[in-house]
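During the reporting period the student researcher (J.K.) took over the structure-prediction task from the postdoctoral fellow and processed the backlog of single-chain submissions. One of the processed entries is reproduced below for the supervisory committee.
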Amino acid sequence: MVRIGVLVNPIAGFGGMHALHGTDALDPRRYDEAVDAGHATRRLVRALVRFTAVGGEASLTAAPGVLGAAAVAAASLPHTVVSGLDPASPTTRLDTLVAARRLVEEGVDAVLFAGGDGTATDLVEALGETVPVIGVPSGVKMHSEVFARSPEAAGRLLADFAAGRAPVASAEVLDVGTAGETGVVGVLRVPRSRDALQGAKTVSRPQDAAAVGHAIARELLRDAGPQATWIVGPGTTAGAVGEALGFPPTLRGVDVRHPDGTVELDLPEERLHAIVTSAADPVLVLGVVGGQGFLLGRGNQELSARVMAAIGAERVRILATEDKVGALFPPVLLIDADAIGDGVRHPLLGYRRVHTGPQQSSVLKVVDAAA
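J.K. obtained the following structure tokens:
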């Protein structure tokens, strides 16, 4: 039976709702809060549940405690725990490196991990191309090609790998550097099957994205009412709307311009929810992640299910350059967001208009990445 190592970054994804843009530099005083939030653990459990639901079979070996074993236990799956490890509290990237190497020493055939680009970067250092990995997308930003499109897709991909139906190939790991630019930091091996990995993020030329964004912004502002509260999502194309409104956008965060002209930058989820529930006319501007097609769930977790429900799909304006839209395969837009509620459909699902230029648009289907 195939042996799978399980590894979790226990604080991954905590920063998304709080506008922290990652947890690499998380204040140690918030470590327990981040672990208790359990974002990465819940998503790994979702992957394991789907793995068993589709008939997957494997022997699981987990890193101890919050580094993996707690998540496998929460999924009610039999497993062994790597012995001889005593993770620090708070855990550090050194614990991730040591645990990953120990899993390989234990003889695992692949590593299932939950985290973001920072965790994937750690695995480049710890593992190189020794064993394949499957990334359960659980961080704030997931630009790398090593992640499945959703936890459920990761579970199906793991089942295909365990059954010998997923050949292994190399994939790029991307991360944001000190200058704020995304670049390739290394390569990991990944299985590939009918459940496609998300693909690496591609970046349009900033001047092209800004030019398209400015042209679309003029139309959007002309058609908007005087009581519009503008919520501007991350990215250069969406950020051009902020510039047209008279403020420099953060580009990595979610900004708000109120009807009286006041601006709030880089807001956490709680503040956004308070704004949109009281606004007379909230209008959300969303960009598309190039090469991946994600609208929600990649670097904009502040736009939670309850925030989106309060805004409503009819007040969402999706912006993308024509080259981004043309490069999507399949030609759909994706949402990888926490559930909006039992039996409640996410407001953005379905066919949506995408503004690609002045008086130009396409209609694309928005689908749940977990489906």
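The committee noted the following: The mean pLDDT is 91.
J.K. will present the remaining backlog at the next meeting.
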